[in-house]
Design brief:
The structure is a homodimer of 188-residue chains. In chain A, 67% of the residues lie in helices and 0% in strands. Chain A is mainly α and 188 residues long. Chain A binds a DNA duplex (30 and 30 nucleotides) through α2.
Chain lengths: 188, 188
DNA sequence: ACGCAATCTTATCACTGTCAAGATTGAAAA
DNA sequence: TTTTCAATCTTGACAGTGATAAGATTGCGT
């Protein structure tokens, strides 16, 4: 008879989406399960039917973000077929993703147990980088040297992403051009 | 008459040092003012005579860590006079610092208000990098290009520091050699 | 129609950061 | 020396947190 039904229906998804929005606006530190539950209009214990604990909930959000990033990179990959340019485009997209959602970066990499091996954006990155490097240096590029150069490119792009969301290092008025210039400034 | 005096004497310093140790072992997430106060043997409100709030306390620890890192870089700077090698040594020291204290990295860069402009390690880094780059490319290096290359070197070193403390990317059995190889893999 | 498993609520627990009020102290000022 | 005052610390409280147990409500398959 009352307005709300006893069962919400899509509580899990709504929790993830609202949590994502909250982090985007205020950061993780001040996010609480209770506030989130109240803002959805559900009791404070309700989320624990869907997430084992707060950490599991945050992991779900992280997965959501990582998937979004991976999707963005994949679409970039499909859009650009030029193998000499796709490297740059991927790096630029990676940096811009975190620039557009500054709080996501801190949120994603604020854990003791980060696992870069199964970090999908880099799994997408690696073959492209290797292809790119082979095209650049020919086949005399040894396995060891190839690995080092690939890692260096990862580190450069990832480090640049951190700078992009922090004031003062990059010129924000001309960000895309800036990123291009920096990524092109090194020769691997 | 009892064992402990009413006044601790050096509570502020002991709080910072114990907090540092705790973060090094368990991470920031589980650090609480109360537990820390109890482990020191002081009441839960005692720290608030020295720190405005928990955030101010954490900032003090961050400053402590950044100072330690800066000191390490400075001593590296003094030890190595060869301008062609000091670049590499600085980068290596930076990465190794965070490798030796893995939880410091997450702790330092987990804030909304990071300010890389006044981040002393990079203030030390910049002139060395510029000197290095000028020696490499001569004086035809434009101001814009110099800035981009310097930023690229920052990003590479900083990004590599993040990888170093995470399993799977770098070969930990041969870390120093690994870092050398990667830093040398790019030409700026 | 029945019953079960998923979902949600209520009540409660231990714990957290923080503050106000007051106790204790060292050191400067008289 | 005595007085006084600011710094320091304790006690006791408050609201807010994550989490759990016990029970209410519901949709769905049989």
């Amino acid at each position: 008879m009352s307005g709300k039904p006893y069962h919400h229906g899509n509580l899990k998804r709504e929790f993830i989406e609202k949590g994502l929005k909250y982090i985007d606006r205020y950061g993780v530190e001040s996010l609480s399960m209770r506030k989130l539950a109240e803002s959805i209009g559900v009791s404070s214990a309700a989320p624990y039917a869907h997430f084992a604990n707060k950490d599991a909930f945050l992991s779900a959000i992280r997965e959501y973000i990582t998937d979004s990033l991976s999707d963005a990179l994949r679409s970039e990959l499909e859009a650009c077929q030029d193998p000499t340019k796709v490297m740059l485009m991927l790096g630029r997209r990676y940096v811009l993703f975190f620039y557009e959602n500054p709080l996501y970066f801190q949120f994603l990499f604020t854990r003791k147990d980060i696992d870069f091996i199964s970090y999908e954006p880099f799994l997408l990155f690696r073959p492209v980088a290797e292809e790119f490097l082979k095209g650049l240096h020919g086949k005399q590029l040894s396995g060891e040297s190839l690995r080092c150069k690939t890692t260096a490119m990862w580190a450069l792009v990832h480090g640049l992403a951190q700078f992009a969301l922090i004031g003062g290092v990059l010129d924000k008025n001309n960000l895309e051009q800036e990123i291009n210039s920096i990524l092109c400034a090194v020769e691997v």
